[in-house]
């Protein structure tokens, strides 16, 4: 597995980091319904109004630009919390973009008697993005030399350059009070090997890490109210609705409309992490079966071009759509019989109305049980520079095995099991609450039992 620095992080159409990628959970600075600890939710764009500075200053130095974004964001976190006149707080820092937060807390605020009892929980969503920069750039962070060892890091990868650097995620891990990630199995993987921990395995092992499976917004992803699908359904009506939804999907992408043909879907970024390159090589190995496949995603241009060739190669059996298309993503989720997830590594995953066929990694292991809620393909080679023939064969073999269950009572039972899952935030939120309460911040109280907790829905989130 290789790592990606901030320059490779997903960006919007203007080439700017999106608010989600800036390490913030939600969008508006407001009180959360999440009662424990009185959490504040910070929008990085609000930092503009609070501090009168540009979040994306024009600079020829990419590190200075990122530091400006990050320090504005960290300052917004502190200012937002102080607006509630509370000192007893827990900051939840997400990924390398907010890794300076615990450092500034210790170096700037606590020595002045501010936030003396505050704690920081650091959550890793994708260890491949760490924020690695030249070692000399530590001076630009305006931190005392005593923090230098927390950032000091020997980069063993040749791309973009090998050698001594600073690593923001490493510092965030070491300087925070608790380290978490988004699934138990992903937590195990991060400390298992150098490759899966992307050279931070020893650091994470030293700090300790807890994995809690992400929930999903069950209000936004509710098949009874989804405006993008023609037939609404629940657990009791899914088998009646599925054929209608499949026919609507086939018609939408101009495939032969036939409810008896099993349909496989893929929705995701066209990146090596997601195994898109493995999938493209595997399709010829199973496309001769009685099956149709619909692949939706955007990403690397060579992969997009390969995707667009699917219809030419297999006109009655495959469609590749290299566009960002929310309605089609919803139609695939509802109308496909299977969802293919060939990720080399995958921190978290949730799927409901279609049967997942997944690589055995990260959250895919925690949420997909072989033969009960889906099919496992085994672990894939995490080396992103090559496509392992064994992984191609694993996809072909498992897809063929899954197709063998289609139309049988076993397949119907698996769909029922998928629909019966509780994928809401209720369980995960309770576990998060327990972790945060155990940090021992004064006046922390449990939330109200039975109160639903879910993230704010965003219309423009369609792919993992």
UniProtKB/TrEMBL annotation:
Residues 86-206 form the Starch synthase catalytic domain. Pathway: Glycan biosynthesis; starch biosynthesis. One of its GO terms (molecular function) is alpha-1,4-glucan glucosyltransferase (UDP-glucose donor) activity. One of its GO terms (biological process) is starch biosynthetic process. Keywords: Glycosyltransferase, Starch biosynthesis, Transferase, Transit peptide. Pfam families: Glyco_trans_1_4, Glyco_transf_5. Gene3D superfamilies: Glycogen Phosphorylase B. InterPro entries: GS/SS, Starch_synth_cat_dom. It comes from the Eukaryota. Belongs to the glycosyltransferase 1 family. Bacterial/plant glycogen synthase subfamily. This is Starch synthase catalytic domain-containing protein. It comes from Prunus armeniaca (Apricot). The lineage of its organism: Eukaryota, Viridiplantae, Streptophyta, Embryophyta, Tracheophyta.
């Amino acid at each position: 597995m290789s790592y990606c620095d901030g320059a490779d992080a997903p960006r919007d159409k203007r080439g700017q980091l999106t608010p989600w990628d800036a390490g913030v959970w939600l969008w508006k600075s407001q009180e959360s319904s999440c009662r424990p600890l009185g959490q504040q939710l910070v929008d990085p764009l609000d930092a503009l109004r609070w501090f009168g500075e540009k979040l994306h200053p024009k600079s020829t130095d990419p590190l200075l630009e990122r530091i400006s974004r990050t320090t504005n964001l960290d300052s917004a976190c502190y200012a937002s919390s102080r607006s509630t006149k509370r000192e007893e707080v827990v900051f939840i820092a997400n990924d390398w973009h907010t890794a300076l937060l615990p450092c500034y807390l210790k170096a700037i605020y606590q020595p002045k008697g501010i936030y003396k009892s505050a704690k920081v929980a650091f959550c890793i969503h994708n260890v491949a993005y760490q924020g690695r920069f030249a070692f000399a750039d530590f001076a630009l962070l305006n931190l005392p030399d005593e923090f230098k060892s927390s950032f000091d890091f020997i980069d063993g990868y040749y791309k973009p350059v090998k050698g001594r650097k600073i690593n923001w995620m490493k510092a965030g891990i070491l300087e925070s009070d608790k380290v978490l990630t988004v699934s138990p199995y992903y937590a195990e993987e991060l400390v298992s090997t150098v490759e899966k921990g992307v050279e931070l395995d020893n650091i994470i092992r030293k700090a300790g890490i807890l994995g809690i499976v992400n929930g999903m917004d069950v209000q936004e992803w509710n098949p009874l109210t989804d405006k993008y699908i023609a037939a609404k359904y629940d657990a009791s009506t899914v088998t009646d609705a599925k054929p209608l939804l499949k026919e609507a999907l086939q018609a939408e992408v101009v495939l032969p409309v036939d409810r008896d043909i099993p349909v496989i879907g893929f929705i995701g970024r066209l990146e090596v992490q997601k195994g898109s390159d493995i999938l493209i090589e595997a399709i010829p190995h199973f496309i001769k079966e009685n099956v149709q496949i619909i692949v939706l995603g955007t990403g690397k241009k060579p992969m997009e071009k390969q995707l667009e060739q699917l219809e030419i190669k297999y006109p009655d059996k495959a469609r590749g759509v290299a566009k960002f298309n929310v309605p089609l993503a919803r139609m695939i989720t509802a109308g496909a019989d299977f969802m293919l997830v060939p990720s080399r590594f995958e921190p978290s995953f949730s799927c409901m109305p279609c049967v997942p066929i997944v690589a055995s990694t990260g959250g895919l292991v925690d949420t997909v049980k072989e033969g009960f809620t889906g099919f496992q393909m085994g672990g894939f080679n995490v080396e992103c520079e090559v496509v392992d023939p064994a992984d191609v064969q694993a996809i072909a073999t498992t897809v063929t095995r899954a197709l063998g269950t289609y139309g049988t009572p076993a397949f119907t039972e698996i769909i029922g099991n998928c629909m019966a899952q509780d994928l809401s935030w209720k369980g995960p939120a309770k576990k998060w609450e327990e972790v945060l309460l155990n940090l021992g911040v004064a006046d922390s109280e449990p939330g109200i039992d039975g109160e639903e907790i879910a993230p704010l829905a965003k219309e423009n989130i369609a792919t993992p």
